[in-house]
Amino acid sequence: MASKKLLAGITRTDRTLMDGRTIRYYDTQGQSRTAEDQRPVEEQPVIGEMRLDPLNNEWVVIAAHRQGRIFLPPKELNPLAPSRPGFLTEIPESDYEVVVFDNRSPSLRPPEGAFDAPHDPHFSTPPVPAAGKCEVVCFTSNYDSSFKDLSHAQIRTVLEAWRDRTHELSQLPFIQHIAPFENRGEEVGVTLNHPHGQIYAYSYLPPKTARMLDVARNHFSQTGRVLLDDIIARELADEVRIIAQNSEWVAYVPYASRYPFEIHVAPRRSVADFVALDESASEAFAPIAKEVLQRLDGVFGVTMPYIASWHQAPVREGRDVMRLHWQIQSVRRAPGKLKYLAGSESAFGAFMMDLKPEQSAQQLREVKL
Questions:
Q1: 119, 122, 177, 196: which is the annotated catalytic residue?
Q2: Does the model's pTM come out above 0.90?
């Protein structure tokens, strides 16, 4: 058992699960984490492969072992609940605040030996191991909760877990990019309803990240300025798309949003990644995070499905031009109606929006909290 002191009075304690995976407890009350995983020992799945799609020059991960993973279990069989007599879960302890553990059915796995993804892949590039890491982040032990329902202190603990995992995963030589995200709602493909997110640590730059990096570099070469800094300055100047702000963070509907309700949240002081957030910015995140998610659920008075993804600078490049920010995207356009990614969006990646960003921003601002 190893423990580590983090910021905000948080202690991380590491334990080992039955198949050799690591589980990390993030605690604020000095808890002792001694419970052993009593489940029978299992073999971890073998690593999958990455194949190059030559039409787009993009990697596609093939992980056939994930076909058998658990799908929408009932509450009483929730594998992310604390363990109890007669029902052993992924978390051996009988309670927890925040935990992070290696995914049981990962799309990406650490490689055996040294690994470096091909830097200039082409039509004849052979498959390579699906190198990387996939981790699960449980925000709370309360099955009936949601990120917006967490206390400020609990959100701060989740943020510290993101910071800690970004720092540690960045040390792995085969990791190129680290992406924490949360899916909420079966409408966006959730397979477990317990409030949780994931962290994907890639051995290559995902297509969207690579595109954002190219655009950010081009903007910097033309202006000498960081693109996200200019975007935030424009949003603050225009005002009409701002939905919440405090001394450290600003939340806005982007100028050219792609979804009926899309919110970006960014630090006012430009930082490359989670690790660069100081204590002041970290403490100020919880209030604005709760507010924007409460506003999102308040638009129609229903639980909104969303994908909330963190974008930060890659581990080994672009750190002078890429900046940390949080993108929250909901496919709900009205009560009982979803925006489906149809022909233009799915086939060609060309988004069409029926709602002006200024309109959705106004609806979000008008929510009574």
A1: 196
A2: yes
